[in-house]
Amino acid sequence: MRKGKTIQFLTRLANPGNFLNIASRIQPWLNISAFITLTMGWIWGLFFSPPDWQQGDAVRIMYVHVPAAILASLGFALLAICGFVLLVWRLPLAGIAAKEIAPVGAAITAICLMTGSLWGKPMWGTWWVWDARLTSVLILFFLYLGHIILLNAFEDPDRGYRSAAILAIVGAIDLPIIKFSVNWWNTLHQPASLSFRGGITISHAILWPLLVSMIGFSLCFFALITARIRAAIMEKRIETRLYTNGQGDHL
Amino acid sequence: MTHLPFIIASYMIALGIIIFFTLQTTFRLKRDKQIIAQFSSRREK
Fold first, then answer.
1. Are A115 and B1 in contact (CB < 8 Å)?
2. pLDDT classification of A7: cutoffs 50, 70, 90
3. Which residues of B touch A230 (CB under 8 A)?
4. Mutate which: A53, A60, A240, vs B, most B CBs within 10 A
5. What CA–CA distance (Å, rounded) separates A65 from A119?
6. pTM summary value
7. What ipTM was assigned to the predicted interfaces of this complex?
8. Pick from B13, B18, B32: CB nearest A115
9. pLDDT exceeds 90 at position A143
10. Which end of chain B, N or C, is less packed with Cβ atoms under 10 Å?
């Protein structure tokens, strides 16, 4: 019964008009909750969490770096899902969503790489090493860029959407490599501090602000992509109206 | 606070990118709404 309702809701959501109505209603709540949790997480992390006994205050970079790293992978997983939905069910919303997720995902991956470098310099003594984790995240960044380039490379937008969808599905192979790189290879990057099997290896005084930052960052990510998809749907409508009114030449 | 420049740079980069995307999306939505409103007012006339 519940499964049927979920499918019904998702089918309704796949219609751009319905998505626009639902997203417009939840957008203010998403924005407010993103702002409050991210501000709370960062203030907690910067001023009220204790310094690490080994790393000192540099550990505070973690409250930006770790959420960015998780969302960089999650964003690409979303791109792969959108690509799959686009290729199998040919839902136009999947193409629009992929186009809007990719730049945000690329920016978040850039945040992850830059904050990682800024954390690496004082801790490892170097900005960059060709370590398995760092290199696989850099490949993820290039995959995002490739996706953006492919989407805009064709005159026929549908060909762009399909090519980018294939890249996203094939590129998703990088996600388990990123996740397990620290276990499969001997890396300078530390292994995961939070895992379902290994439990939690960090102090609770550091864990809580990290979780709040993660929630804040995630809400911020979803608020941004929801708003971008809304804008893209409206732009499609404007484009259609201009063409139907015989003003297509102005585009 | 130790390593202050590294910490400030990390938070500023993240904040800058978030603000950039927020403003970009806000202006996009505002422009789109204005164009749609123009269409609607033209149709009413």
1. no
2. confident
3. 29
4. A60
5. 9
6. 0.91
7. 0.91
8. B13
9. yes
10. C
